[in-house]
Design a protein that fits this description.
Layout (H helix, E strand, L loop, with lengths): L5 E8 L5 H7 L6 H9 L4 E9 L2 E8 L2 H16 L3 H4 L4 E4 L1 H12 L10 H16 L4 H20 L2 H4 L3 H12 L8 E4 L3 H12 L5 E4 L3 H11 L2 E2 L5 H5 L4 E4 L10 H5 L5 E5 L16 E5 H7 L5 H52 L5 H30 L5 H10 L20
Parallel strand pairs: 5-6, 5-8, 6-7, 8-9, 9-10
Antiparallel strand pairs: 1-3, 1-4, 2-3
Helix pairs in contact: 5-7, 5-15, 6-7, 7-15, 15-16, 15-17
């Protein structure tokens, strides 16, 4: 990949692990800075971005060695899950270099989502990348990768019908719940949580015709802001028991580490409820499944029942991703050799200038015109000598394994090539 670091992705999702394990590993926004600092403090990890959603936890890292980086990250995840590495390993997926690029692009495009084609993952990936930028844990390699992944995700949604074929997790949960009860149109509904999932839930419920809408959150100010945007009423969190008596549909999507809704609380509502638990860890206590007055749809149930998006649109998305991966890898190999070529030309210029100074000292009788002609001739000779090798090394660098040619140039000519750093506040999208 770039320099002496390589891209590694380690994670687990609804495809490889059950909800109980995901619950142990899911991270709240407040935990991310500490986890990012822990990751870049590991021996083989130079950069890190953590993507944690309701159905995946994965780490994008720039590592100095594959096995060392995998051991570092796998050990950290196992410790957080309270498992031995050998117990966690069968449920992890690992992607390295080109496969890691492809995975990042597929995730951003919604092709790896529980509901294929959902667009919410783009915002979640952007937020995760932004947090890593703020914490200083995303360097050159991850900046380039994630800027490009976000662009690819937008392109897939713009050029295919995948977002129409797919649904958000909220829409899928609502559709499943309505199939088991009744349409939500005209029914009073409550959203618990004022984060991005809470906002999406309110918007989805409003489109479905649920009315009136209520929202509650431990921070009442956040609930008020969200309510104002979606035509809902903000209710203090302390009034949750009373509020449950007034609504028929409940969507819970908080970042709480424990249950927000338990069996006595929901039984006390006194009437039938459709409850959608979209949180991880789960907001609804397991005993609620036993209540006769509650139809509960949670992430675990949802993952078992969702259908995939239209095959044609999924294929179109995969084709775009494949082309983008190849273009990105070609660009990345070229970008890796460019600083080396520039350093070689700079070294040649230094040698020429040094020799011209010596000539001026040893032959002071040369006039300005003669010295200019000699300088022009030497520079032209050096440029002609370097032209074919530098063109050829750029071509070779674009092929798989091409980074070895840049490394060979650096060693042969003892070139010191600085590593470019990207300021996350100033970084723009990368276009190969």
């Amino acid at each position: 990949m770039t320099g002496n670091v390589n891209l590694l992705v380690v994670g687990l999702s609804h495809r490889t692990a059950g909800v109980p394990l995901l619950e142990k590993l899911v991270l709240s926004p407040g935990e991310l800075p500490e986890v990012l600092a822990e990751l870049v403090g590991l021996p083989y990890v130079d950069e890190a971005v953590v993507l944690s959603t309701c159905n995946r936890v994965e780490i994008y890292a720039a590592v100095t060695a594959f096995h060392g980086g995998l051991a570092d990250i796998g050990g950290m995840l196992a410790a957080r899950a309270g498992l031995a590495v050998s117990e966690l390993a069968p449920q992890l997926y690992v992607h390295y270099e080109a496969d890691a690029v492809r995975h990042a692009f597929r995730v951003a495009a919604g092709l790896d989502s529980m509901v294929v084609g959902e667009a919410q993952i783009l915002g979640q990936l952007r937020d995760s990348y932004g947090t890593a930028g703020e914490q200083g844990t995303a360097g050159r390699l991850l900046h380039e990768l994630l800027q490009q992944a976000l662009r690819v995700g937008k392109r897939v949604h713009a050029e295919t019908e995948i977002d129409r074929a797919g649904q958000s997790v909220v829409s899928a949960a609502l559709a499943y719940g309505q199939g088991a009860t009744a349409p939500v149109e005209g029914r009073p509904a409550l959203v618990i949580g004022a984060g991005s999932m809470g906002a999406l839930s309110l918007a989805t419920l409003r489109r479905a015709g649920a009315s009136p809408l209520f929202v509650t959150n431990r921070s009442h100010a956040r609930a008020e802001r969200l309510a104002e945007l979606h035509g809902a009423e903000a209710v203090p969190f302390a009034e949750l028991p009373t509020l449950l008596e007034r609504v028929e549909v409940v969507v819970s999507a908080t970042a709480s580490p424990g249950a927000v809704l338990d069996a006595p609380l929901l039984a006390g509502a006194g009437h039938d409820l459709l409850v959608l638990d979209l949180a991880l860890p789960r907001d609804v206590a397991p005993a609620v499944h036993e209540l006769e007055n509650v139809t509960l749809v949670d992430i675990e149930l949802l993952s078992e029942s969702l259908s995939t998006t239209a095959e044609a649109e999924e294929r179109a998305g995969e084709e775009i991703v494949a082309a983008e991966v190849e273009a990105y890898l070609t660009w990345l190999r070229g970008a890796d050799v460019a600083p080396t070529v520039a350093a070689l030309r700079a070294r040649a210029d230094e040698v020429v200038e040094a020799e011209l100074r010596r000539l001026a000292q040893r032959c002071p009788e040369l006039g300005d015109d003669a010295r200019a002609e000699v300088s022009h001739s030497i520079h032209r000779i050096v440029q002609r000598l370097l032209h074919q090798p530098t063109v050829r090394v750029r071509q070779l660098a674009a092929a798989p394994g091409g980074e070895a040619y840049a490394q060979a140039l650096r060693e042969l000519f003892d070139l010191q090539v600085p590593t470019a750093e990207i300021n996350p506040a100033e970084a723009s999208e990368v276009h190969p």
